[in-house]
Design goal:
- This protein starts with a strand and ends with a strand.
- With 623 residues, it is mainly β.
- The chain is built from five helices and 30 strands.
- It has a 14-stranded antiparallel beta barrel. Strands 18, 22, 24, 25, 27, 28 and 29 form a seven-stranded mixed sheet that branches.
- The radius of gyration is 33 Å and the shape is flat.
Length: 623
């Protein structure tokens, strides 16, 4: 029996190895040579995969609101990050010394859209790759984040996993060996869930599970190839421009703690130091806001012990492009440092009181929904009383306008043999003829015939009459009925609806301005002023006594009106009992306003419709 000879060189002093030599197979005959080759091949592939486990995926802290890589660690964070596009790359060194290092390439990209559906559902897509001389790893996936409350969200992500081994690394190995019977690549998938909660101002909690399905990346299904289910939980607390993180993760080595301390600014810049005793490494990370939508992130990780670490260092560089940033002001205020800045009066005391203002909401989304109603004056009072409030569009507080006033569902079974028994009047036939002409001229126009109770049968007959008499496409006319799961419609009665209505929706509804004070003198009174970009004061909030730690504001001016679009600045002034006045730093935020207008026209004569409509609906109320 001929045994394969394995020639390799070790490039790590730990239990993790990287194959850097060749596998040479001597030719043999008979059944006895298959088993040894299979055992050696399984050992080789499993050994290569074990090195894959040593190189962790690019994951940030699951409690971080600024770290771009955190979105891959916890999908629930999508609801609280700014919309962004991220592109990052990382380089590794493996070995005992720099002279023996081997560069390994890794990178990731992601897109985060926290406001895909209103302000409650966000979506993200991500990709990661890991490239080494022995194998390559690719991860493609997407995530959803559901914002339950103002400070709580749930997230779920699913990703396709692909691992391929470089055939050139297995020199003179017969690829027909049983270990390579399934090829040199493996595809599977992985999934994760997470949550994030803002419990108190500055106090955040996070948790979840990664690798829910425990995917196996080994070519032969070896136990070493299983990515075990990993639970994670974390807490962070921020105070006076400093934030501490503590994260616990269950992994191959058991419980893996990670701690970090950072100094941050409201613009998204931060400096962070941390480490993990599980892999005996520490890291330094910084993110700098360059202006406009751009930020750059750099991270350096260094092992404390060569005996237990998988690498001798890594560098990661990430570019971040954020949407919805506050635009650069024409006369920008110099950004304050982490130690508070003020404008002192003409006084030179030994200790100058200082106050720094901070807020997590850099911009406000102002949605205004307007409904204009026109009712044909020829409409009878009886017909008007048969309408419901939903027929005339009911304003709600959602950011997305519903196209249909009443939730309906399509009638699945349409009976083609139903015919109208009642004779249609000349006016009714002329109106339907005009409607049919419009359908034939514009194939994209859709008409919905909604029937209530027995009116569903009449709706089918009217549809059949239109198809047979006017020769329009069947796909343009649908028959609907009220959704049985929806709330019953509210009768309009004798109350004539107003000609116009409007509703303002603010996202977020309330902002919290944190007051970080460092002074010893008592305070007599204070005032927070909000100014437009032209300097006009739109809001004053004042009080007496000690400065509050936080000030809540509903984004409305002194007259109770929601702020219009534009750039606004705010600052705090306060006076001591002696009458000395001090001023805090000045912060800015941006208001983005969107107006959605809905026009409803109610008539029994479609010939009076002079403006093309987005939706034509015929209501049949037979009760």
């Amino acid at each position: 029996m001929f045994m394969p000879v394995l020639r390799m060189s070790f490039v790590s002093s730990s239990s993790d190895f990287l194959i850097a030599g060749r596998v040479r197979r001597f030719s043999g005959t008979g059944r006895r040579s298959v088993i040894p080759r299979l055992l050696w091949g399984m050992w080789l592939v499993s050994l290569c995969f074990y090195e894959a486990g040593a190189q962790q995926a690019i994951l940030g802290l699951p409690t971080s609101l600024d770290d771009p890589a955190a979105l891959q660690a916890n999908p629930a964070l999508i609801s609280f990050h700014r919309p962004k596009v991220v592109l990052g790359a990382q380089g590794y060194y493996v070995g005992l010394s720099r002279a023996e290092t081997l560069p390994l390439r890794q990178g990731y990209t992601l897109l985060s859209l926290p406001y895909m559906v209103g302000d409650w559902l966000g979506m993200g897509v991500h990709a990661q790759y890991f490239d080494s001389p022995v194998y390559k790893r690719l991860l493609l996936g997407s995530a959803l984040s559901w914002r339950l409350l103002r400070g709580v969200s749930l997230g779920v992500s699913a990703s396709a996993y692909h691992v391929s081994y470089n055939e050139e690394a297995f020199v003179e190995v017969d690829m027909s060996d049983p270990v390579f019977a399934g090829g040199t690549s493996k595809e599977t998938f992985t999934a994760a869930v997470g949550f994030f909660a803002q419990v108190l101002p500055g106090l955040h909690l996070a948790g979840g599970v990664r690798h829910l399905n425990e995917p196996n990346l080994s070519l032969v299904g070896a136990p070493e190839g299983v990515e075990p289910r990993s639970f994670f939980g974390g807490i962070s607390y921020a105070l006076a421009g400093l934030r501490a993180h503590v994260v616990l993760t269950t992994g191959r080595r058991g419980l893996e703690p990670q701690v970090a301390l950072e100094a941050y600014s409201t613009q998204g810049s931060y400096v962070r130091l941390g480490g993990s005793p599980a892999d005996a490494s520490g890291f330094a990370e910084g993110q700098l806001y360059l202006g406009g939508p751009l930020s750059v992130n750099y991270r350096y990780q260094l092992p404390v012990s060569d005996l237990t670490a998988a690498t001798s260092g890594s560098h990661r560089l990430t570019l971040v492009f954020e949407f919805g940033r506050v635009p650069r002001l024409l006369d920008p205020v110099s950004p304050p440092g982490h130690f508070l800045e003020v404008t002192p009066p003409d006084l030179d005391p030994a200790f100058v009181p200082r106050v720094y203002l901070d807020s997590r909401e850099p911009y406000l989304e102002h949605f205004e929904k307007r409904v204009e109603r026109t009712i044909d004056p020829r409409l009878s009072e009886e017909a008007l009383r048969s309408l419901t409030a939903e027929d005339l569009v009911v304003l709600d507080s959602s950011t997305a306008s519903r196209r249909r006033p009443i939730p309906t569902e399509p009638v699945e079974r349409l009976v083609p043999g139903i015919r109208l028994v009642d004779l249609l009047s000349d006016t009714y036939q002329r109106s339907l003829q005009l409607l049919g002409d419009g359908l034939k001229q514009d194939s994209t126009l859709q008409v919905a015939i909604t029937g209530f109770d027995e009116g569903v049968v009449k709706a089918m007959g009217l549809r059949n009459w239109l198809l047979a008499g006017l020769q329009v496409q069947a796909s343009q006319i649908s028959v609907e009925q009220p959704d049985s799961t929806a709330l019953p419609p509210r009768p309009l009665g004798f109350q004539r609806p107003p000609a116009s209505e409007s509703l303002t929706v603010l996202n977020p509804e309330v902002t919290t301005i944190y007051v970080l004070a460092a002074y010893a003198d008592p305070t007599r009174d204070w005032e927070l002023t909000v100014r437009r970009d032209d300097g006009a004061i739109v809001k004053r909030l004042s009080g007496s006594g000690t400065l509050p730690q936080q000030i809540e504001w509903d984004w409305r001016d002194d007259r109770g009106r929601a702020l219009e679009a534009g750039v606004y600045r705010y600052r705090l002034t306060w006076r001591t009992p002696e009458g000395v006045q001090y001023v805090s730093n000045e912060q800015a935020f941006y208001v983005r306003k969107v107006v959605r207008k809905i026009h409803v026209y109610v008539t029994q004569d479609p010939a009076t419709l002079s403006v093309p409509a987005d939706l034509l609906e015929i209501r049949l109320n037979d009760k």
